């Protein structure tokens, strides 16, 4: 099997006129394909190859750039609902009729919307560093988080400070930033970053009536986070899981926003056990 660090980037044109860049790893099997939905200002290169390789050991795993992100064409939308519609268009363009979803951070918001908009498309859902729409306290990030990852120029140092609790836990950052030696994805542009942050901010406008929406997600859901995530605090993991009809929760120790990269072997094992249950 190829490694995510070397697998080629492919493209597919959807009915919405957008050409999506994606990477496809693992073998078709009895398991549903697992589609990964990326975090704020991330592109294809910002998935940890060790995590993706481990996930793909037992199933087909697909990563992609949504509209306006990386090498995908078009302009990035500024609402989570529009991002979900675009993701559905991509999945449909691949000819897939049922998938499992793994959404990370912003991608976890998009995964929730996909399940609400097109429930028959989704079998099971993994939500990493997630929060429900309208919850109190998620309307924008704290100043230190914005300073670290929200500026016009992103830095590896800022990424590490938010994704990991301490330097010795940040070995995964080296895999994300340094493993791929050729065929890099196009950088995420500032207009795309701005649109994504607007979408995240809209998602966080306090509105407790919107919390009822997630009760429409009837698929089994695995909700996970690190115990020290400064971007999406662990209490929102518990809030979301409590609202969902069928949820399993896990909090990973001594870990921040990038817990799934830091604990990639355990997280991948937990995901596989959940999806195969």
From TrEMBL:
The keyword Methyltransferase does not apply. This is Alpha/beta hydrolase. The keyword Acyltransferase does not apply. Residues 33-263 form the AB hydrolase-1 domain. Keywords: Hydrolase. It comes from the Bacteria. GO terms for molecular function: hydrolase activity.
